[in-house]
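pinned: reference chain
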Amino acid sequence: MSPADILNLPQVSDTLLLQFLRDAIDFVASSHDAIERSAPHIYLSALPFAAKVSLVYKDFIPQCAGLITVATFGISDHGGRAAMRLTGHSGAVHSLSYSSDGRRLASGSADGTIRIWDTQTGEEALTPFRSGDGSVLSVDFARNNKWVASGTAAGLVYIWDVSQNARSHRLSGHSGAVCSVAFSPDSCLLASASGDGSGTVHVWNSGDGRAAASLRHTIPVTGIVFPPGGKLLATAACNGTISLWNSTKWRDGSKLLQSNDESRLPITATACTVDFSPDGECVAVVNHDAVVLWRCENGKKIGRLQGEGNICCARFSSNGRFLVTTHD
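pinned: its structure tokens
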């Protein structure tokens, strides 16, 4: 049955019509780059990659002869959907961060740019930010949706004013690549971690860019995040441990969980990046080609999400329903 037949049937159910429209939106959103090139790509390049269970695929593929056959793996095998495909970076995407309202997504790339995407349309919302300091390894959206922070391979940290589409602050102090940046829940503080030998973590005032604290490790720190509540800062070290720092004792350098503490999260592989769910109940830790989920209350393992290659970053959406990852 063709789309025209579906729309012209007086007895067609609302469910069937809505399903076709949803499938059509997914099809256009996930393949818009090919479709924009020329109309024939709708059939030559886009349709073979459409979900086999979608009404768009089922209705149109029988009408097209000589198309390639594509076997898909991953989310298609599990009944998932690729909502859209964001294109624009010319290098690997190292980091992603949602805005607190979920309407925008920031991405940092090896091409040296930070791009801000509209999650409703898949289009770029702003002109790309360019620091000129090489590869962007980490990005984070402030919870007030006003700022985006970025860390570069050159060891510099930037705060970008999204509302003004301009750079706000350039922060220096790391002696190695900045692997992770994170705003506090109230957006007043920004923490940045370096993968240098000393494992330095700096905490900055977001508004004026002034240094607020400096935390020292003996090994490189590859990931940081403020858990919900804002009273703690979690750091992930390259030996596979997660440490929690009390924000009221930063001057003393006190840790709530030492690297050799028996109560630490029992992570046995290298911890690359870390993120907490919005409700603070679980933590996602990237271990090379997988994301491991842990229960914060008791440190028990919830599950393991296997990727397809090296995973650079994992981030929860603002409602906690989705976990987005980037790959090399």
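why pinned: The CA atoms of residues 20 and 55 lie 6 Å apart. DSSP finds four helices and 21 strands in the chain.
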